[in-house]
Amino acid sequence: MVTRGTLLNNEPLAKYTSWRVGGPAQHLYIPENKADLIEFIASLPAGEPLYWMGLGSNLLVRDGGIRGTVINTRGRLKEMYLADSERVYVEAGVPCAHVARFCADLGLTGAEFLAGIPGTMGGALKMNAGAFGGETWSIVEKVEMINPRGGVIQRDHHEFEVAYRSVKGLADEWFLSAQLKLNKGNSEASQQHIKALLEKRNASQPTNKPTCGSVFKNPPGDYAARLIEACGLKGFAIGGAVVSEKHANFIENRGNASSEDIETLIEHIQTQVQTQFGISLQTEVCRVGDKA
């Protein structure tokens, strides 16, 4: 098989994740562009397990690594352009923060909240990522999907069941791109809004530490961070993983954490919140791979 991208075998994934942890991928493919990715997926053997990574945030790769093929879109699938006066085409590998600024520069409003999401559009589409009260699928009109045979499918928003940090209806398909529907606004106002949101984020979140973003979903009518802090868990550590002193819904890698440390800490937090408040915290972070 001739590919234009880069295929790596037994490639350690820690350097590709924002937590800086994770075992090796059996195969890691970095496509040259969308067309190359489509050809590569079409060439894979039937039943090959397929995983996707963008910026590696919201992702815990276990220490035993991943059997199968991991597609890394970081720095790839990066095309973005104005489709018409109120619509933006964006591929899955574009960082959400870039989308926010691109739309603001064009004088389109509604995507400012994306500046607070530390991942790519592909990941944001998969989980309906949100920040500052905004959610990804509130601005999605239609998407382009790819199936395990390399077939490309166009789907409308209404074909998915979208809820808080949840998107159902994917069924062995993955996101290649999206068309966003926005409103005409004022470029300067949007840029100032983004600036204010980022200042708020930097003041309240450990943005300069190795984290995955928010670990847990907020339960209805409450906040995961409040519950975790109320359990006295700020600063609590297992191995190299510690609950952030700045924001209790973040787990930091102090530099020597393993995936097992992080996962054990996640489960400890869940147990403590369940015991003290009777609330079952659900993870926002996606856990993949095998334990060591």
Structural category: alpha+beta
Strand order of the largest sheet: 6-7-15-11-12
- Contiguous low-pLDDT stretches (5 residues minimum) are none
Mean pLDDT: 95
Major sheet details = 5 strands, antiparallel
- Tally of individual helices: 6
Q: How large is the radius of gyration?
A: 19 Å
**Strand tally:** 20
Q: What is the terminal-to-terminal distance?
A: 32 Å
What's the order of the H and E elements?
EEHEEEEEHEHEEEEEEEEHHEEEHE
| Overall form | globular
Helicity, in percent?
10-25%
β-strand amount: 25-35%
Structure summary:
The protein has helices spanning 34-43, 96-105, 121-127, 187-204, 224-230, 259-277; strands at residues 6-12, 24-30, 50-53, 59-61, 66-72, 80-84, 87-91, 108-109, 130-131, 134-135, 140-146, 152-156, 161-163, 166-168, 174-181, 183-184, 237-238, 241-243, 251-253, 286-288. It has 292 residues and is an alpha+beta fold. Its cofactor is FAD.
Account of the 3D structure:
Belongs to the MurB family. It is found in: Cytoplasm. InterPro entries: FAD-bd_PCMH (IPR016166), FAD-bd_PCMH-like_sf (IPR036318), FAD-bd_PCMH_sub1 (IPR016167), FAD-bd_PCMH_sub2 (IPR016169), MurB (IPR003170), MurB_C (IPR011601), MurB_C_sf (IPR036635), Oxid_FAD_bind_N (IPR006094). Its cofactor is FAD. The active site is at 165, 214 (proton donor), 284. There is one protein chain. It is built from 6 helices and 20 strands. The chain has helices spanning 34-43, 96-105, 121-127, 187-204, 224-230, 259-277; strands spanning 6-12, 24-30, 50-53, 59-61, 66-72, 80-84, 87-91, 108-109, 130-131, 134-135, 140-146, 152-156, 161-163, 166-168, 174-181, 183-184, 237-238, 241-243, 251-253, 286-288. The radius of gyration is 19 Å and the shape is globular. It has 292 residues and is α+β, with helices and mostly antiparallel strands. The model has no long low-confidence stretch (mean pLDDT 95). A 5-stranded antiparallel sheet has the order 6-7-15-11-12, with helices on one face. Strands 1-2-5-3 form a 4-stranded mixed sheet, with no helix packed on it. A 3-stranded antiparallel sheet has the order 17-18-19. α2 packs antiparallel against α4.
